[in-house]
Every structure is written in C-alpha cells, then in structure tokens.
Design brief:
Mean pLDDT: 91
Order of helices and strands: HHHHHHHH
Shape: globular
Number of helices: 8
Distance between the termini: 12 Å
Length: about 210
C-alpha cells in the first residue's frame, strides 16, 4: 500500500485554487463583470506605451516563444528526463502538454471570446485563454521541475526568478501587441498551473 505523499497536499491545493480562479475569470468575462471591464481599461491604456522599438522587440519575443516551439522543447526535455530518471517524470511532462492542448483549445471554443480590435500583429483563433501564456508558464514550470535536483540552491532560486520574469514578459507581449486581453493571459497562467500539478497527481497515483 502506497503512503500518502505530503507534497500532494500542496499539489491538490494548487489544483483546486487555480481551477476556482480560472472558473471565476471565465464566468466574469461571460457576464461582463469587473474583470471584463478591467480588460477594456488596460487595452485602452496600452497604446500610450507603444513605440516602434517596443513593438519590434515584443514581436520578436512572441515569435521566439511560440506554443509550437515550446511544445517541441518540452518534449525534448521529456526525452532527456526519461534518459536520466526513467519514465515517471517524463510521463508528467508529456501528460502536461497533452492536457494543455486539449484544455486550451477546449476553452477557446467553449467561450469563443473574440480577440481585441486593432491588434499589431495577425493572430487567428479565439482569445481566451492565451496559448502563449499557457505554454510559456507550463514550459518554465517543467524546466524547474526537471532541473531542481541537479542544481545548487542559489542556481534554483536564480532559475526560478528568471522563469517567472520570462513567463510574465511573454504574457505581457500578448497584451502589448493587442492580441489578448489581460484576463486571457492570467487565465493561461492559471491553466498551466492547474495542468502541471494535476498531471503530477495523476502520475503519482499510478
């Protein structure tokens, strides 16, 4: 009989908390509540900080960290983890990306939220949640998950800070380029957290 892993309490908490917050945001958007109004206010403020330099810079960031590229890098990371640690950890990574694809596109079509008007670049599909935010957050969580036992404490802290900053930067590029609302990006982050820790629980149980 397997003993209960104390770490799973934190995972369960994060799964439920991220799911509840994600649901609150989705309902608020559908009912045009305070978050919906905040989205419009932020979208109206963004043009005041736009400049040719920032637009070019953020366009390059959003192109480099496309979901497809992050998925490929994530699966390559799963292969490296498999070679070093065996199948269990790599299963978490693979399951995370599978769930991310299913749930991201599922929510896209379920809510069918139109993208903001006057975007600076072309982007197809629906707006909620942001695919860039979802896969960027998921990839960097998985990167830390894969390396945490192989680097020093200082390196772990540095990597975590860098991962958070990169995730926020990628998310902000989508708002700046006006292809997503603020809540789309926030929902993408929450979806990634939900997916990763749910995947950990599922694989841990097997």
């Amino acid at each position: 009989m397997k003993t209960f892993n104390p770490l799973n309490r934190l995972r369960i908490l994060l799964v439920f908390l991220s799911l509840i917050l994600l649901a609150v945001i989705a309902v608020n958007i559908q009912t045009q509540g305070q978050i919906y109004l905040l989205d419009n206010q932020i979208s109206q403020l963004i043009p005041y900080i736009q400049s040719p330099f920032l637009t070019t810079f953020f366009h390059q960031i959003t192109n480099i960290f496309q979901p497809t590229i992050l998925i490929i890098l994530g699966l390559f990371l799963a292969y490296l983890v498999y070679k070093r640690h065996g199948i269990k950890k790599s299963k978490v990574i693979i399951l995370s990306f599978i769930l991310a694809l299913i749930l991201k596109f599922g929510l896209n079509f379920l809510l069918s939220r139109a993208r903001p008007d006057n975007s600076l670049i072309y982007s197809s599909g629906f707006s909620f949640p942001s695919g860039h935010a979802t896969f960027a957050c998921l990839f960097f969580i998985i990167l830390i998950f894969s390396l945490k036992h192989h680097i020093s404490k200082i390196s772990k802290i540095s990597l975590s800070i860098a991962a958070v900053l990169m995730t926020l930067l990628i998310g902000f590029t989508r708002i700046y380029l006006n292809v997503h609302y603020f809540s789309d990006v926030l929902a993408g982050f929450l979806l990634a957290i939900f997916i990763f820790f749910l995947s950990c629980l599922i694989i841990e149980k097997k």
